[in-house]
Write a structure and sequence with these properties.
The chain is of the alpha/beta class. The chain folds into 2 domains: about 150 residues, Globins (Globin-like); about 130 residues, Transcription Regulator spoIIAA. The chain is built from 11 helices and 5 strands. The protein is rod-shaped and about 90 Å long.
Length: about 300
């Protein structure tokens, strides 16, 4: 369920509304006991184990109240907003999707059993209350589950973006000189991100030379190799010359297979040599430059 889509309502007939009103009154009158039963069932099922008992009870209280409000008003909008906010807090602590679905289903079970006990002597009324309650409860459970999944996907995307940024750093070694040590697998998405970060850093630092160290890259496919060549050309258009270091024979062959003349690329065997070449290109006489501590760690 996209956040921009209309929020579904728990529409009901007049008879259902009357029965749900009676149900809501019952759930509010027995709030304390039902919350405790629910919290106990969560603990017994070993759900939300990363949270303390006090934290679980606090969340149980909030979810219970939002749950009952949704039954009363026929709208899940408030519950949906709370579910997203709760998800944002607990996902980062390692709570899994099945745990969230589990606690919602446990609440439905606790309330269902309580209704059975309370209305067992009036089977007809019990049947009508359950007929009104169960569809609403199912829609509420689905709403909470979908909200959690959407929030989890958003967090995962943020984490993936952060990992990509950390894996393709662009560091300033000295005035007008940047280095980007690339480690690990490089796919098309990461290659595009590298280009964006590099060009942004060239502009921000007014760089004249950039060193692309690909010693830690085992292999690239033709698409990524082509992107690397385009990155070098884009840097040139922004006034920065590129030095590529750590070019393996396999990657070199891939670039040759693209029909690119390696003479167009300024390549040096290792990072130290690349930094010395960069210093020469900048016109510094002291070519015996050492990588900074931050560069080595990265």
């Amino acid at each position: 369920m996209n956040q921009n889509q209309p929020v579904p309502s728990l529409q009901q007939s007049a008879a259902e509304a009357s029965l749900l009103h009676e149900l809501v009154e019952y759930l509010r009158e027995n709030r304390g006991d039902l919350r405790e039963q629910w919290a106990r069932r969560i603990t017994d099922a070993e759900l939300l184990s990363v949270m303390t008992a006090d934290e679980i009870f606090s969340e149980v209280t909030a979810v219970y109240d939002n749950y009952v409000d949704a039954l009363e008003t026929g709208s899940v909008e408030t519950l949906q907003a709370y579910a997203r906010e709760l998800s944002e807090r607990i996902i980062r602590r390692g709570v899994e999707t099945h745990e969230v679905l589990g606690i919602v289903l446990l609440l439905r079970d606790v309330l269902g059993r309580s209704l059975l006990d309370n209305y067992e002597e009036d089977r007809d009324l019990l049947r009508r209350i359950l007929d009104a309650y169960e569809p609403a409860a199912n829609r509420i459970a689905a709403t909470v589950g979908v909200s959690f999944v959407e929030e989890r996907e958003r967090v995962i995307r943020e984490q993936q973006e952060a990992i990509r940024e950390l894996s393709t750093p662009v560091l300033q070694v000295r005035d007008r000189l940047l280095i980007s040590p690339i480690i690990g697998a490089v796919d098309s998405d990461r290659a595009r991100q590298l280009t964006e970060q590099l060009l942004g850093a060239i502009q921000a630092n007014r760089a004249r030379v950039v060193v692309l160290d690909i010693t830690g890259v085992a292999s690239v496919d033709e698409a990524v190799a082509n992107h690397l060549v385009q990155t070098v050309e884009a840097a040139r258009l922004m006034g920065a010359r590129a030095v590529i270091t750590g070019l393996s024979s396999k990657i070199a062959q891939t670039i040759v297979d693209l029909g690119v003349d390696l003479g167009m690329l300024n390549t040096v065997g290792d990072l130290q040599g690349g930094l010395e070449e960069a210093e020469r290109m900048l016109g510094h006489r002291d070519a015996d430059v050492e990588p900074t501590e931050s560069s080595i760690e990265s």
